[in-house]
Automatic annotation (TrEMBL):
GO CC field: cytoplasm
The protein's name: GST C-terminal domain-containing protein
Matching SUPFAM superfamilies: GST C-terminal domain-like (SSF47616)
Highest taxon of source: Eukaryota
Species of origin: Carpinus fangiana
InterPro entries: Glutathione-S-Trfase_C-like, Glutathione-S-Trfase_C_sf, GST_C, GST_C_Tau, Omega/Tau-like
Gene Ontology MF term list: glutathione transferase activity
CDD domains attached to this UniProt entry: GST_C_Tau
Example GO BP: glutathione metabolic process
Domain (GST C-terminal) ranges: 1-104
């Protein structure tokens, strides 16, 4: 799923096509029909592991502009996220969403600018090489 947010072009399109199937498996096989959490009625280790997704996904979707976990497509996963975030032990310890948004935007900007710097340097080297060969 994270490939959707780290790539572009054909690779991103393929990941966008594959992700709903993965989410469907998580929803149907992981949560089942009546489970509030992955282990039943109580938060378990799988919920804790997937809890990062619950908190980061909305932030990443907002920054990148690609929505993957839509409520009408995955109602049980959406309900799980709501239940997970509302559990007192989780709610009291969730990081601030606005701070996460700023943090992720900074990460994206650093990656973009490092790629741009690399590209600019590579083009400069190529230009100097071609110029020296004339």
């Amino acid at each position: 799923m994270w490939v959707v947010y780290r790539t572009s072009g054909e690779e991103q399109e393929k990941a966008i096509e594959d992700t709903p199937e993965m989410l469907k498996v998580m929803e149907e096989d992981g949560l089942g029909r009546d489970n509030k959490f992955f282990g039943g009625d109580n938060i378990g280790i799988v919920d804790i592991a997937f809890g990062q997704i619950a908190q980061w996904l909305g932030v990443i979707e907002e920054v990148v502009g690609v929505k993957m976990l839509e409520a009408h497509k995955f109602p049980r996963l959406h309900a799980w996220i709501k239940n997970f975030k509302e559990a007192p032990v989780i709610k009291e310890n969730l990081p601030d969403r606005d701070e996460m948004l700023v943090s992720f935007e900074n990460i994206v900007n650093r990656v973009v600018f490092s790629v741009l710097d690399f590209t600019e340097n590579a083009l400069g080297i190529l230009y100097m090489y071609k110029k020296s060969r004339k």
